[in-house]
């Protein structure tokens, strides 16, 4: 079937001979991938498809790419209590880390000869699907609840996607999606629905090691669905297996204090979706970090496994800390991120304060997406009014300059 990788069930281990399969034919479990040891491995930092030796790319298939990955790893501009680096995923083609996953998903769609794409998303996944579908010349249907703000729809429409505002909730839309037949390729960044895309976040680990020269001591990830954290961890495991690193980082998840199922699970030793559902927050609660709004993260079990295997940590941060860091990342670090990203530095503060992160340790924080796509999340502020007769002295008073 393929030259360098095999597909098998992560639950029961049964091999999956069909590349069109999205779940295990034997037990319904989530599919995963294993790879031959690559003959060579890039030493220089690359982009996503430079790492194709450890990605599921069938022989003879061209990746669907917009040049995703290769994002900057920037040292913090100020003292953050440890050696903090920002992995700025806002530099991806549509401004978020989801471009890595959707490039993989759309390449899978191409490999199996898909004719049309369907996705339910008002955010980064929808935008990435619209762009990559355009690149792959595949018609794309994006379903979202009626009343979604126009600023989120317009870029998707610009990419030529068909955006449908459905008069229902997200649960109602999920029912619609479940009814779709095999003539639709369903894009999702949940591993159980779309296993191929879940290999995309591994490339964040690959790039980080190439940029840093080794694995960091900690890797801190704001967690919504959990798939990104789990994927990054698998990337580090791949690198250790092929001998590119000899030690692994500790993984840390950051959620909001309301949507903190992983933190509760780590504290109480929970390990099933039913146990998580019993402690999960109702999704009617609001948060400024809208990408982190999951009662039970759909890839929670994989994320929990990564946190436990890596001797990591799960913390949560409040709305005020997120709002504050949203502004500080921009004003103090020059990184205008979406509000959800601000959970990462707020989580680092927490881990430094309670002594779990030591001063000399190297910490990479994932900045998941650009704030340029969500300017409405900023507090209202007015420019300084100046009359036409303003003098040079007025301007000097406005910006005195650095002392
Ligand atoms: Zn199985």
Q: Could you name the CATH class of the largest domain? A: Alpha Beta
> Main β-sheet, in a few words?
6 strands, mixed
Mean pLDDT: 95
> What does the radius of gyration come to?
21 Å
Query: Which H/E pattern describes the elements?
Result: EEEEHEHEHEHEHEHEHHHEHHEH
Question: Globular, elongated, flat, extended or rod-shaped: what is the shape?
Answer: globular
Q: What fraction strand?
A: 5-15%
Count of DSSP-assigned helices:
12
Note down, in words, how this protein is organized.
This protein is of the alpha/beta class and 403 residues long. The chain folds into two domains: 5-65 and 98-186, Rossmann fold (3-Layer(aba) Sandwich); 73-96 and 201-373, Rossmann fold (3-Layer(aba) Sandwich). 32% of the residues lie in helices and 15% in strands. It contains twelve helices and twelve strands. The strands form three sheets. It has a six-stranded mixed sheet with strand order 3-4-12-9-10-11, sandwiched between helices. α1 (98-111) packs across α2, α7 (261-268) packs across α8 (273-279) and α7 packs across α9 (300-309). The protein starts with a strand and ends in a 5-residue tail after the last helix. The model has no long low-confidence stretch (mean pLDDT 95). Zinc ion (ZN) binds next to loops.
Draw up the topology in text.
Blueprint lengths: L4 E5 L21 E5 L37 E3 L7 E6 L9 H14 L5 E4 L3 H12 L4 E6 L4 H9 L3 E5 L3 H9 L6 E2 L15 H11 L5 E5 L4 H15 L8 E7 L4 H8 L4 H7 L20 H10 L3 E5 L1 H15 L9 H11 L8 E6 L24 H7 L5
Helix pairs in contact: 1-2, 2-3, 5-6, 6-9, 7-8, 7-9
The chain binds zinc ion.
């Amino acid at each position: 079937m393929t030259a360098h990788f095999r597909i098998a069930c992560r639950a029961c281990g049964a091999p999956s001979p069909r590349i069109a399969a999205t779940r295990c034919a034997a037990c319904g479990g989530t599919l995963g991938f294993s790879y031959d040891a690559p003959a060579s491995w890039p030493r220089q930092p690359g982009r996503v498809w430079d790492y194709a030796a450890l990605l599921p790319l069938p022989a003879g298939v061209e990746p669907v790419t917009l040049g995703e990955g290769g994002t900057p790893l920037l040292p913090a501009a100020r003292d953050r209590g440890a050696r903090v680096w920002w992995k700025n995923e806002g530099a991806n083609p549509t401004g978020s880390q989801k471009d890595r996953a959707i490039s993989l998903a759309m390449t899978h769609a191409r490999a199996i000869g898909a004719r049309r794409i369907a996705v339910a998303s008002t955010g980064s996944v929808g935008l990435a699907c619209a762009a990559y579908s355009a690149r792959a010349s595949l018609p794309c249907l994006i379903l979202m609840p009626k009343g979604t703000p126009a600023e989120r729809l317009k870029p998707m429409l610009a990419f030529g996607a068909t955006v449908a505002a459905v008069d229902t909730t997200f649960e109602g839309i999920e029912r619609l999606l479940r009814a779709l037949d095999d003539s639709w390729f369903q894009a999702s960044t949940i591993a159980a629905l779309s296993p191929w895309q879940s290999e995309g976040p591994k490339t964040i680990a690959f790039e980080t090691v190439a940029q840093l020269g080794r694995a960091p001591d900690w890797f801190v990830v704001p967690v919504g669905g959990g798939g990104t954290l789990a994927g990054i961890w698998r990337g580090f495991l791949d690198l250790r297996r092929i001998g590119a690193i000899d030690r692994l980082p500790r993984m840390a998840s950051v959620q909001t204090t309301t949507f903190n199922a992983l933190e509760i699970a780590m504290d109480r030793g929970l390990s099933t979706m039913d146990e998580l559902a019993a402690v999960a927050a109702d999704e009617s609660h609001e948060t400024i970090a809208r990408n982190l709004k999951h009662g039970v993260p759909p890839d929670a079990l994989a994320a929990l496994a990564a946190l436990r295997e890596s001797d990591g940590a799960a913390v949560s941060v409040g709305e005020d800390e997120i709002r504050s860091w949203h502004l500080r990342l921009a004003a103090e670090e020059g990184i205008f991120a979406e509000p959800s990203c601000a959970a990462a530095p707020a989580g680092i503060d927490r881990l430094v304060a309670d002594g779990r992160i030591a001063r000399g340790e190297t910490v990479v924080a994932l900045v998941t997406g650009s704030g340029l796509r969500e300017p409405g999340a900023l507090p209202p502020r007015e420019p300084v009014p100046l009359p036409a007769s303003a003098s040079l002295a007025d301007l000097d008073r406005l910006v005195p300059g650095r002392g």
